[in-house]
């Protein structure tokens, strides 16, 4: 999504973090991380969540996790699905497939 889209602008009112317009017109999340204000793309935030999930799975399984199948809401468009796949790659996962949550 783009920073200027009405849905993004409206949703920003309820978020507990600041969102600014990136150079490419996409939203950038400003958050305090380790005592410093940093800018993150939505994909970077998603990758942090996926990386943590990967760590938890590795601890539970007692072995490295390399491959993943990731579910997304059925209403995600192709761009959002690709962004989720990119987040998985950033998290160190080999994303085998992106599937809709109802299918999963």
Oligomer: single chain
Question: Main sheet?
Answer: 3 strands, antiparallel
State the secondary-structure class. Answer: alpha+beta
Ranges where pLDDT stays below 50 over 5 or more residues in a row are none
Main CATH class of the largest domain? Alpha Beta
Describe the structure in your own words.
The protein has 104 residues and is an alpha+beta fold. It has two domains: 1-40, Defensin A-like; 42-104, Nucleotidyltransferase, domain 5, CATH 3.30.420.40. Helix content is 38%, strand content 28%. The chain contains three helices and five strands. The strands form two sheets. It has a three-stranded antiparallel sheet with strand order 1-2-3. The protein has a two-stranded parallel sheet with strand order 4-5. Strand 1 and strand 2 form a beta hairpin. Helix 2 (42-61) packs across helix 3 (78-90). It is globular.
Short description:
This protein is of the alpha+beta class and 104 residues long. It has helices spanning 6-12, 42-61, 78-90; strands at residues 18-21, 27-33, 36-40, 67-72, 94-100.
Spell out the blueprint of helices and strands.
Blueprint: H1 6-12, E1 18-21, E2 27-33, E3 36-40, H2 42-61, E4 67-72, H3 78-90, E5 94-100
Parallel strand pairs: 4-5
Antiparallel strand pairs: 1-2, 2-3
Helix pairs in contact: 2-3
List keywords for this structure.
28% strand; alpha+beta; 104 residues; Heat shock protein 70; Nucleotidyltransferase, domain 5; three-stranded antiparallel sheet; Defensin A-like; two-stranded parallel ribbon; 3 helices; 38% helix
